[in-house]
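Protocol step 6 of 9: fold each sequence in the batch and record its C-alpha cells directly after the sequence line. For illustration, a two-sequence batch is reproduced in full.

Sequence one:
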Amino acid sequence: FKMALWLAFFNQATCSTSIINFAPKILERAGIDDRDNAVLFASAISVTKAAGVTLSMFLVDRAGRRFLLVGGSYVAALAMSLLAVAYAANQAFLALLAMCAFMLAFSASWAGVFWVLMSELFS
C-alpha cells in the first residue's frame, strides 16, 4: 500500500499537466510573440505526449518497469533544467524542445508505467 501511495505522489509531483496547460504562456514569455504560434507550438507537446505513451506500451515489458521509471525521471529532470535555462535566456525554440523532451520522457515512463504498476500491486 505504501509503495502505491508513493508512486501516486511522484506521478502527480511531476506536474506534467501544468506543462500542457501553461505551454502557450510559457512559450510566449520565452520569446514567441504571436499567441496563435504559441498555441500551435504547444500542440506539438500534446502530440509528443501521445507518442511517448505509445512508446511506453511497447517498452514496458521489454525494457522493464524500473528502468523506464528511473530513466524517464532522469531525462525529465534534465529537460526541466534545460527549460529553466531556455526561459531565462529568452530562447523560445529551446524552451519548446525542452518541454517536448520532458513530455516524451514523462509519457514514456510515468504516464504509462504508473497505471500498469497500480493494477499489478492491487491484483
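Sequence two, same batch, same settings:
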Amino acid sequence: MSLIDVIIIIVLLLFLIAGFRLGFIRSIGALIGFIVGIFVATFYYDVLANLFLPLFLGNLKIAQIISFIFILVLASSLVGFIFHIIDRVFKIVAIVPFLKTFNNFIGGIFSLIEGVLILGIILYLFGSYFQQFLINSTIAPILIKMAGILIPFLPEGLKCINCFLT
C-alpha cells in the first residue's frame, strides 16, 4: 500500500466519522447538495462568469472556474441548510429505540460516498501533478473512475485546470 493510499484512506475515514456524527439526514443533504451544486453550477456558471469578467481582467477561463466554484458552494450550502432544518425536526422523532444508531450508521455511509466523489474529482483535476505518487496507488484510480459520473458535468475550464496552472 502506497503513502497516497494511506492518505486517501485517512481522509475517507474522516468523511465516515463526520457522517456518523452528523447522521443520515444531514449527510444525505450534504451529498445531494454537492450533486445539485454541480448541476446548478453547470447551467449558470457562464452567466455569472460574464458578470465577473471585469474582476478578472477579461480572463474568461478564470472567471468561469471561480463562478463554477462559487455557485457550487452556494447551491450546496442552501441544500445543506434545508436538510439541517429537516434534521432538527427528525431529532424530535429520534426517541424511538435504535433509530438514532441507524441514523448515524447510514449517515456515515452517505458521507463516505460524498468523500469518494470529492476526492475522485480532485484527483481527476489535479492528478497530473501527483502522477509519480498515483502510479503506485491502488485506490486513486478507483476513486477517479467512481467520480467519472460527475466529470461530464464539469465545465471545460475546470476539466483542463492543468492548462492554467502550468
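Proceed to step 7 once all outputs are recorded. Observation for sequence two: The first helix runs from residue 3 to 22.
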